[in-house]
């Protein structure tokens, strides 16, 4: 289990190691001809590497073209529930926020699907709050077939589950699960997640192991940018990714870059990351693992997302709504967070094509399973 590796490392020692990297360390990693290690990754996300951003961007672009070509995968999230048993201080769905709670019925989900299908999407991301009573295993067993019949690829970002539960959902059409640790700083984790099942740091940390043992096709990991030092968070994510690839090599992997956005509760980020530093982070992951998928959501601005198309991103969302029923039935329900890029899927598609890339609505066929 990854926990055994994680517990070897000390947060402050890792942070100090990253910040002590020099330009010589960065150049050595950039000039390597073989695979980079998590130790190499430290140099790529260090302050010393910011002076090499152009070189990193060029290398990131070359590696992405080599592995993925000029293709950009399109996906869209669909929120089914804002019911939540956790009290995460940064989330609009926190049980401490006095909001109207909604969990979509099967009929309402069908309406959402009809609206989303008009855009042309074949990759769907199902999102819920973490409430096992309102949106748990039995609920998902009912609604997954609705999505499987309409979409080529079904992903989920829900509460961490047991291996046996994932094994029940995979035959029903589940292709991918995204589970973010939020922060790898164990000492601060409880401050951000004071109550609810999510307050169990290690249960969440071991979720990718359970997914790997369940033979999930793909999983996504990452951290919430803004809760603690992003460079140190990124190192632990790279360590986690490295472990998962070695132990569950049949599974594909993706990394996302969720930057904190305004939400109910008015939480202020502990740290900020500049656009330039986020470019550095994206390029660092591409240089570290050329085969990993890198996703960017509508949390980011129009101009910034447009500039990322050629720098290593492979998956991009468009037309997103972050509230249950946001596409058809409850357009005014509370959003998990405010999106930044509100352009339509058609507009995003035109931007991608204008940059010489192919817009990919579907890259998965169920019969390949």
**CATH level-4 homologous superfamily:** Aldolase class I
Structural class: alpha/beta
Q: Count of helical segments?
A: 15
Main sheet strand line-up: 1-2-3-4-5-6-7-8
Order of helices and strands: HHHHHEHEHEHEHHHEHEHEHEHE
- Basic shape: globular
CATH architecture: Alpha-Beta Barrel
Give the biggest sheet. 8 strands, parallel, barrel
Number of strands: 9
The residue-averaged pLDDT reads: 94
CATH topology: TIM Barrel
Low-confidence stretches: none
End-to-end C-alpha gap: 26 Å
Query: Nearest-angstrom radius of gyration?
Result: 20 Å
State the CATH class: Alpha Beta
Proportion of strand residues: 5-15%
Kindly give the count of domains: 1
Helix content: 25-40%
Overview of this protein structure:
This protein has 369 residues and is of the alpha/beta class. The protein has a single domain (2-364), classed as Aldolase class I (TIM Barrel). The protein is 39% helix and 12% strand. The chain contains 15 helices and nine strands. It has helices at residues 2-6, 11-19, 23-30, 38-45, 53-68, 106-117, 137-148, 163-169, 186-192, 201-205, 207-213, 230-247, 275-288, 302-308, 345-354, and strands spanning 71-81, 123-128, 153-157, 176-178, 218-221, 252-256, 293-296, 315-317, 358-360. It has an eight-stranded parallel β-barrel with strand order 1-2-3-4-5-6-7-8, surrounded by six helices. β5, α12 (230-247) and β6 form a beta-alpha-beta unit. It is globular. The relative contact order is 0.18.
């Amino acid at each position: 289990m990854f926990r055994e590796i994680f517990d070897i490392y000390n947060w402050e020692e890792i942070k100090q190691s990253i910040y002590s990297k020099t330009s010589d360390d960065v150049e050595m990693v950039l000039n390597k001809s073989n695979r980079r290690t998590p130790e190499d990754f430290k140099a790529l996300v260090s302050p010393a590497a910011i002076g090499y951003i152009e070189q990193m961007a060029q290398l990131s672009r070359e590696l992405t073209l080599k592995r993925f070509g000029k293709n950009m995968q399109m996906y869209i999230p669909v929120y089914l529930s804002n019911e939540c048993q956790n009290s995460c201080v940064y989330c609009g769905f926190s049980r401490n926020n006095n909001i109207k709670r909604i969990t979509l019925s099967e009929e309402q989900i069908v309406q959402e699907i009809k609206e989303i299908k008009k855009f042309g999407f074949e990759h769907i991301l199902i999102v819920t709050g973490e409430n096992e009573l309102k949106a748990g295993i039995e609920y998902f067993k009912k609604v997954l077939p609705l999505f499987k019949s309409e979409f080529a690829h079904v992903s989920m970002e829900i509460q961490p589950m047991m291996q046996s539960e994932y094994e029940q959902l995979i035959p029903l059409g589940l292709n991918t699960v995204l589970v973010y640790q939020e922060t790898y700083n164990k000492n601060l984790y409880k401050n951000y997640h004071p109550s609810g099942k999510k307050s169990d740091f290690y249960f969440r940390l071991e979720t990718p192991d359970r997914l790997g043992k369940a033979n999930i096709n793909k999983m996504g990991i990452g951290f919430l940018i803004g809760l603690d030092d992003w460079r140190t968070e990124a190192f632990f994510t790279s360590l986690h990714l490295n472990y998962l690839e070695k132990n569950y090599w049949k599974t594909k992997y993706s990394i996302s870059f969720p930057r904190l956005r305004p939400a109910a509760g008015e939480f202020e980020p502990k740290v900020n990351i500049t656009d330039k530093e986020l470019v550095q982070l994206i390029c660092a992951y591409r240089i570290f693992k050329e085969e990993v998928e890198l996703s960017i959501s509508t949390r980011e601005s129009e101009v910034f997302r447009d500039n990322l198309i050629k720098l290593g991103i492979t998956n991009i969302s468009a037309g997103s709504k972050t509230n249950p029923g946001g596409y058809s039935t409850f357009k005014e329900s509370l959003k998990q967070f405010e999106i930044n890029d509100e352009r339509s899927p058609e507009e995003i598609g035109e931007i991608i094509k204008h940059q010489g890339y192919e817009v990919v609505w579907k890259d998965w066929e169920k019969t390949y399973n």
